[in-house]
Amino acid sequence: MRRWSTVMALAAFAASLSGMGPLSMAHADDSPEQAFNNACRTCHTIREGDNRLGPSLYKIVGRKAGSLPGYNYSAAMKDTDFVWNEANLARFIANPDEVVAGNNMKPYAGLASADERKKVLAFLLSAGAR
Questions:
Q1: Closest of 70, 87, 71 to residue 125, by C-alpha
Q2: What percent of the chain has pLDDT over 90?
Q3: Helix%, strand%, coil% for the chain, nearest 5
Q4: Annotation: CATH topology of 31-126
Q5: Over the stretch 60-101, which tens digit does the pLDDT of each residue have?
Q6: What number of helices (H) and strands (E) belong to the chain?
Q7: CB 93 within 8 A of CB 82
Q8: Domain definitions of the chain by residue range
Q9: Which site from 7, 39, 80, 90 is most exposed, i.e. has the minimal number of CB atoms within 10 Å?
Q10: For the residues of 50-88, what is the DSSP string, one character each?
Q11: Would you state the pLDDT for residue 88?
Q12: Contact, 130 vs 59, CB < 8 A?
């Protein structure tokens, strides 16, 4: 029993040194930026001109869907006829196939958590997406 408690104490100490202790994890999980990083950053950035696997989301609000110069969109996205606004982004984050069938967002199928979707949208609206 004493050995187990020593191992647990060392593990907790190591976690606190790495910044991954319970307090920092709770803070990170509440962050809109962290929600974006967890769900979107693999393919997208919010930096102007920084297209990756997905297009840059810089100033996406007000932009016609599928229209960012220099990015090779799917035919389905190019053929859409709407402008990105808060409502369209919220729906797309929740279920991209429902909004634009035939998009190239695979394997992303949507963000199930309404709270996480709100955080991602809040991050986009506050971090250069307007």
A1: 87
A2: 72
A3: 50, 0, 50
A4: Cytochrome Bc1 Complex; Chain D, domain 2 (1.10.760)
A5: 999 999 999 999 999 999 999 999 999 999 999 999 999 999
A6: 7, 0
A7: no
A8: 1-28, 31-126
A9: 7
A10: --SSS---TT-TTSBTT--TT----HHHHT---B--HHH
A11: 96
A12: yes
Structural tokens at position 32: 């809109």
Q: Are 96 and 109 in contact (CB under 8 A)?
A: yes
Token duo for residue 73: 């969109």
Residue 55 identity (one-letter amino acid) = P
The packing angle between helices 32-39 and 114-126, to 10°, is 110
Residue 68 CB neighbours (<10 A): 18
Residue with tokens 């035919």: 75
Q: Provide the token pair at 15.
A: 């976690």
Q: How many CB atoms lie within 10 A of CB 17?
A: 9
